[in-house]
């Protein structure tokens, strides 16, 4: 792929975030995305055959970015509660802001569950595995309440995902994530 086509593809995905946030999935059009990206509709269609495949590509990109950010947020030697909080927020805060800043957040979440359920599953499984891997490397923790590292990862990933969807205000979300991480760290013996 040439540099210019990569650039057009990246611009299209960035524009899609803006357009879907502004209009929701249903009212957004490929023409809207092309205009926002500063590319022709033909150039957009070279990369994505329709709005659904564009949305799926955007979702997949966001999953990759969220998992990479979460993996990079963990700091060896830092207190467990701080690592858990940093990891959860690295994965979810951008998405929380996107969903709650748009009047179309619920519609976008529904579209994601319908059009990109495989990406949602990959995000959930990837984050659960990441947490299990990170917690297994922490010395001296008691994970018996969680049935070991895998249970820990699965439980915390599920709870964190629920918070992202249930909380309405960012300040409340941040406070609740912090509280959750301190509770979980205590339950693990730190």
From TrEMBL:
Pfam families assigned: TetR_N (PF00440)
SUPFAM superfamilies, per database record: Homeodomain-like
Residue ranges of the annotated DNA-binding region, renumbered to this chain: 29-48
Origin: domain of life: Bacteria
Gene3D superfamilies: Tetracycline Repressor, domain 2
Domain HTH tetR-type span(s) in chain numbering: 6-66
Keyword DNA-binding appears in the UniProt entry: yes
Keyword field: DNA-binding, Transcription, Transcription regulation
Magnesium in keyword set: no
InterPro entries: Homeodomain-like_sf (IPR009057), HTH-type_TetR-like_transc_reg (IPR050109), HTH_TetR (IPR001647)
Protein name: AcrR family transcriptional regulator
Source species of the chain: Caulobacter ginsengisoli
